């Protein structure tokens, strides 16, 4: 018996089908188009698509609470999280489509149905993602250079107003999710490390220093080659993009390095490439940790909190990598108060 395709996937497949067969990409826009009150329904393809050399079946690339992504040929359609702030969503799309971000962010494609089941929908060119099975080929230097270029874009040249970068807010949600999942013996050091962070890193206010345009959720899954296989690397997923502390975008690899999960040579290559490209998040030379410490600690807490929440729901033990991040939180929690104040200032 053929499995029934969920309505959301079916409608996203239709959006991706239309986006994949546009005659030509439009000129880059400087502002996001208004959402129609009643977007037109687009029927899904009912037969094999000759142009895509494939079948009418949707290829589901991701299906999570924060987004569902479906591919058809050279395009993907994404249903963003329920409850997405529409004004901020439009602003982020406008930035991604802006000519100033060409060669840095993947630009969106027009969509015929920008709202499906009450969730905003976007379409994007399909690109080749980083191969998780080949860590030696991971494009750390390319990621660093793209971040440096992103952080260097003058906000005054972009459509206003720009929303805040959502990194600290996501960290706060991760800690709340850990608590909602139920009691766990590893949760105490994570909460203790969280309490030692300054308020801005917990999403309670703006950062203390100058704000820059930030990605907000940098990891290797946020890069693709476009055109697929042969094109340059580009940053994707603007759901968390906005104004904030650019050090946050370096925090995940910094946290992995501090926890022993990222080899020192890889961290050195990443940091060196960022500095070589003129990235403003850290000084051009010398010790970067006074700038990276707080965001790296926050990302360590976020990672540990999500690991505990997932393991609690799945009724399983923490794996070796997850335990190493929890252990890092335990070390953070024992940081002397005077040192915590010094690195947070």
Automatic annotation (TrEMBL):
<dbReference type="Pfam" id="PF01636">
    <property type="entry name" value="APH"/>
</dbReference>
<protein>
    <submittedName>
        <fullName>Aminoglycoside phosphotransferase family protein</fullName>
        <ecNumber>2.7.1.-</ecNumber>
    </submittedName>
</protein>
<feature type="compositionally biased region" description="Pro residues">
    <location>
        <begin position="23"/>
        <end position="47"/>
    </location>
</feature>
<feature type="region of interest" description="Disordered">
    <location>
        <begin position="20"/>
        <end position="47"/>
    </location>
</feature>
<dbReference type="GO" id="GO:0016740">
    <property type="term" value="F:transferase activity"/>
</dbReference>
<dbReference type="InterPro" id="IPR011009">
    <property type="entry name" value="Kinase-like_dom_sf"/>
</dbReference>
<keyword id="KW-0808">Transferase</keyword>
<feature type="domain" description="Aminoglycoside phosphotransferase">
    <location>
        <begin position="76"/>
        <end position="287"/>
    </location>
</feature>
<dbReference type="InterPro" id="IPR002575">
    <property type="entry name" value="Aminoglycoside_PTrfase"/>
</dbReference>
């Amino acid at each position: 018996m053929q499995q029934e395709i969920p309505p959301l996937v079916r409608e996203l497949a239709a959006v991706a089908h239309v986006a994949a067969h546009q005659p030509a990409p439009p000129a880059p826009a400087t502002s996001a188009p208004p959402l129609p009150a009643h977007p037109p329904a687009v029927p899904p393809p009912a037969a094999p698509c000759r142009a895509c050399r494939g079948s009418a079946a949707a290829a589901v690339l991701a299906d999570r609470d924060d987004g569902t992504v479906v591919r058809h040929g050279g395009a993907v359609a994404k249903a963003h999280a329920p409850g997405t702030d529409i004004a901020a969503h439009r602003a982020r799309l406008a930035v991604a489509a802006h000519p100033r971000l060409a060669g840095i962010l993947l630009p969106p494609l027009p969509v015929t149905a920008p709202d499906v089941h009450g969730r905003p929908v976007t379409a994007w060119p399909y690109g080749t993602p980083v191969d998780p099975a080949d860590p030696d080929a991971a494009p750390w230097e390319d990621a660093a250079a793209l971040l440096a270029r992103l952080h260097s874009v003058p906000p005054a040249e972009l459509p206003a107003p720009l929303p805040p970068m959502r990194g600290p807010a996501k960290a706060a949600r991760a800690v709340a999710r850990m608590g909602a999942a139920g009691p766990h013996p590893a949760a105490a050091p994570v909460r203790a490390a969280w309490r030692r962070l300054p308020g801005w890193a917990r999403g309670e206010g703006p950062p203390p220093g100058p704000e820059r345009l930030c990605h907000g959720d940098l990891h290797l899954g946020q890069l693709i080659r476009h055109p697929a296989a042969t094109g340059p690397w580009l940053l994707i997923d603007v759901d968390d993009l906005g104004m904030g502390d650019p050090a946050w975008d370096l925090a995940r690899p910094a946290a992995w390095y501090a926890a022993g999960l990222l080899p020192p040579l890889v961290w050195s290559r990443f940091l060196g490439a960022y500095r070589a490209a003129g990235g403003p998040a850290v000084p051009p030379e010398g010790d970067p940790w006074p700038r990276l410490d707080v965001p790296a600690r926050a990302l360590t807490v976020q990672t540990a909190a999500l690991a505990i929440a997932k393991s609690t729901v799945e009724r399983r033990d923490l794996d070796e990598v997850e335990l190493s991040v929890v252990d890092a939180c335990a070390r953070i929690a024992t940081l002397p108060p005077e040192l915590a104040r010094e690195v947070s200032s």
